[in-house]
Automatic annotation (TrEMBL):
GO terms for molecular function: transferase activity. This is Alternative oxidase. The chain crosses the membrane at residues 12-32. It comes from Cercospora beticola (Sugarbeet leaf spot fungus). It holds the Pfam family O-FucT. GO terms for biological process: fucose metabolic process. It comes from the Eukaryota. Keywords: Carbohydrate metabolism, Fucose metabolism, Membrane, Transferase, Transmembrane, Transmembrane helix.
Length: 456
């Protein structure tokens, strides 16, 4: 009898334990499954240590490998003037502007057979980004890898001499007083290259600048004013690749990406040129200078600016559509990023918003904070170039720099099925769209120049 009762009591205890554990096991399994679905295990970080992972990420770029041959062919076709030197003046803006201005300038120099003075640029004031007139000048390495550029151009175009400064030229050089503006006449971009070459030759001859006179000519900065679409695709790509982001800043991007993989349990391979099915890249452009420039004014037929609410809603919709739960937000306005985090967390489904500052240690963040605003943005540029899907705004050269480079990658990988500019005819709120990139809003100037003037 006692044995029977004991057995009955044991059975009750076992049943109670099972009834308690089974629901706990079920809900734990659901939680783990959901977590793994959102953030796959980081195979790459298990295989590689931090240093090796970052090194491999830095050795990989969106567009690679670089081939100097197309530039060599162009330079071999050019008639070079050994005593003519071009000097870029008034280059200003963020990296989207500066990069485009330097590449236009390089193209003008190659077309004209001129050597160059290594370009410099205006430093925008952190407290007022809209003020560039009379700004302090910075040298080429402020944004770009000078050693890489000099070595690349030496290989690709040895006919072009590159001087560190005008002082390096020495005595006997005439400095032309008038700045040459390649956009005059303003229809220049609609003329053939042959006509433009003749126009430049006539301008030089009119100022007694000939093969017998050593002269330095100041060249006014232009942005997307060349018809680079009329050039061989391989040449466009090769010239665009001579500008690399300065390596010390690029290193912070590699650190941030490794930390994102580790903390969010993302399977990011450092050798992937685009990190597929990992995170959405958003260019949140709502800083004070956008207001000063009128970017957020009410829309017109050709201009549509996007405020914080519109930008973030578009980005969140796109992230959800592509099945991405993490958004990397690039912005120079920390308070707006924090606001974005709150909005995204309240979204259904909830989304995680991260910035570069979330993915760097305190010491790394302090070191980056010591740099200028536009240098900090270079970290965002390197990360966004390789995000899974990218979203930006039409009034921003930074957004278009990224979208054009990623579209060039797609063309090389036979992924560019549709004309990204055709989106304008389907949706008045969209300027550019393909499966890896979408640019919202409208801007007449950018939409006129970029299709044929932007360098990859």
């Amino acid at each position: 009898m006692w044995a029977k009762a004991a057995n009955s009591s044991a059975q009750v205890k076992i049943a109670t334990v099972l009834l308690t554990l089974i629901p706990l096991y079920y809900f734990s399994y659901r939680l783990i499954s959901r977590s793994n679905k959102s953030h796959p295990t980081t195979k790459a970080s298990k295989i590689l240590n931090r240093t090796k992972w970052q090194q491999q990420w830095l050795e990989t770029d969106l567009l690679q490998p670089w081939d100097p041959l197309p530039i060599q062919m162009k330079c071999n076709e050019t008639k070079w003037i050994s005593n003519l030197v071009f000097d870029l003046v008034n280059a200003n803006g963020g990296v989207g502007n500066i990069r485009a201005e330097i590449l236009d300038f390089l193209f003008y120099a190659i077309e004209s057979g001129a050597s160059i003075i290594l370009p410099s640029m205006a430093i925008r004031r952190d407290d007022d980004l809209s003020k560039v007139v009379g700004a302090e000048e910075a040298d080429f390495s402020y944004m770009f890898d000078e050693l890489w550029f000099l070595e690349a151009m030496r290989k690709a175009c040895p006919q072009m001499r590159i001087y560190e400064s005008a002082e390096e030229l020495g005595d006997g050089w005439k400095k032309e007083e008038q700045t040459y503006d390649p956009r005059v006449p303003w229809s220049r971009k609609d003329l053939s290259q042959g006509q433009w070459k003749q126009q430049t030759a006539d301008w030089l001859a009119g100022r007694k600048i000939t093969a017998d006179v050593s002269a330095v000519v100041a060249i006014e900065h232009t942005m997307w004013e060349t018809n680079c679409r009329g050039e061989r695709p391989a040449f466009r790509r090769a010239l665009g690749m001579v500008l690399h982001v300065r390596p010390d800043v690029r290193r912070y991007a590699a650190i941030a990406m490794f930390n994102m993989a580790a903390t969010e349990r993302l399977d990011l391979l450092p050798t992937d040129r685009i990190h597929r099915k990992a995170f959405y890249g958003a260019h949140l452009r709502t800083e004070a200078d956008t207001i000063a420039a009128g970017w957020l004014w009410p829309p017109s037929d050709a201009e549509i600016g996007l405020d914080f609410t519109l930008q973030t809603s578009y980005y969140m919709q796109a992230a959800v559509t592509h099945g991405l739960s993490i958004i990397f937000a690039a912005s120079g306005n920390a308070s707006e990023v924090e606001r974005f985090k709150q909005v995204a967390a309240a979204n259904r489904p909830p989304l995680t918003v991260l910035s570069k500052w979330d993915l760097l240690s305190e010491a790394e963040g302090d070191a980056l904070q010591a740099m200028h605003w536009d240098q900090q943005a270079l970290v965002d540029l390197e990360i966004l170039k390789r995000c899974s899907v990218f979203g930006g705004v039409a009034k921003s050269s930074f957004s278009f720099l990224i979208a054009v480079a990623r579209t060039t990658y797609m063309e090389e990988e036979d992924e560019a099925i549709q004309d990204p500019w055709s989106a304008r005819h389907r949706d008045k709120m969209v300027a550019f769209e393909n499966k890896l990139n979408k640019i919202w809003g409208r801007n007449q100037l950018n939409e006129e120049r970029i299709p044929k003037g932007a360098w990859p």
